[in-house]
Amino acid sequence: MTTGLATERDLALESARTRIARLSALPLLDPRLVQVLTQPDVDIQYQQLRELLRVDPALAVRVLKVANSAFYGSRSISSIDRALTVLGAVAVVGISMAARFDGSLAPDCAHSGQFAHLRRHSLMTAAAAKRLATRAAVSPWDGESAFLLGLLHDLGWLVQLQIERERRLRPHASGSASTGRTEHALLSAALFAHWQLPAQFIDAARHHHALPETEPRSFGSALLLVAEQCALYGGDAFGIDFRPPDEKLPLAMFRITEADLPELGAQCAADAALLDGLVN
Asked: Which of 35, 56, 82, 189 has a beta carbon 3.0–4.6 Å from 206's, enabling a disulfide?
């Protein structure tokens, strides 16, 4: 049964997606990488990635650096084909997107401290989400998809900046006003919908600041809630006003307690620093 609240949420998402489609510019992730994620056939995913990395040797080098690093257990991987075989397409997309998570995403704020903080927050949340997904007793998210979710989940902040910029440039243009303090979560979900990413990505981003009364709206939203808290313990202060108290988090889903958060925070900070050094 569809409730009135669900309908209202759908309308809000559809409205936000329409606003995004009308923007003159969006966060500029390589559309070829997004296309790989929307491709259900793994063989076609591999083919698309091989071609993409063949014509972009600099990106291919960064992918191999990460694939051979401690981040993936210090394996011996000498080619993109081997990386795809050992790590999988989603992992290679995740590494490539981490490498592309630079000033070209948002040229207007590339040199601002705000973008640097968002980038660090995204890398730390991604690293924490990857670890948490493997801790859960039953997880519908594998570690690589969880990493990708953590990396992309707050791109709504950049969409919000673009909306505000265009509103200043065109003050008399029609458009919806901000829907509140979690506007960026709605915009992240709408961006994922615009890109035609899987529904679980859209749902997780949409509700990752929604504290459950009884249980989380989805495993993905719970994953992001806890991953962001781990990042906070690792020294990430981005969006600190949105962080709930530890006791309200669905920690049991990941078989951890409040006492585990400082160690997980230190681990995700180290993972993010390692990854940052490899892809830059």
From this structure: 189
Q: Which of 127, 129, 51 minimizes the C-alpha distance to 89? A: 51
CA distances from 38 to 13, 31, 122, 183 (A): 19, 11, 21, 25
**For residue 255, with 0-12 CB atoms within 10 Å meaning exposed, 13-18 middle and 19 or more buried, which class applies?**
exposed
Place of tokens 């390589």: 30
CB 151 within 8 A of CB 224: no
DSSP string, 5-62: HHHHHHHHHHHHHHHHHT-S------HHHHHHHT---HHHHHHHHHHHHHS-HHHHHH
| Amino acid identity at 88 | G
What does each C-alpha distance from 111 to 52, 114, 116 come to in angstroms? 28, 8, 8
Contacts of 59 (CB under 8 A, 6+ apart): 52, 53, 96, 99, 100
The pLDDT tens digits of the residues spanning 126-185 come to 999 999 999 998 889 999 999 999 999 999 998 988 888 888 877 655 555 554 557 899
Length of the chain: 280
Structure confidence by residue, pLDDT tens digits, 97-135: 999 887 666 666 655 678 889 999 999 999 999 999 999
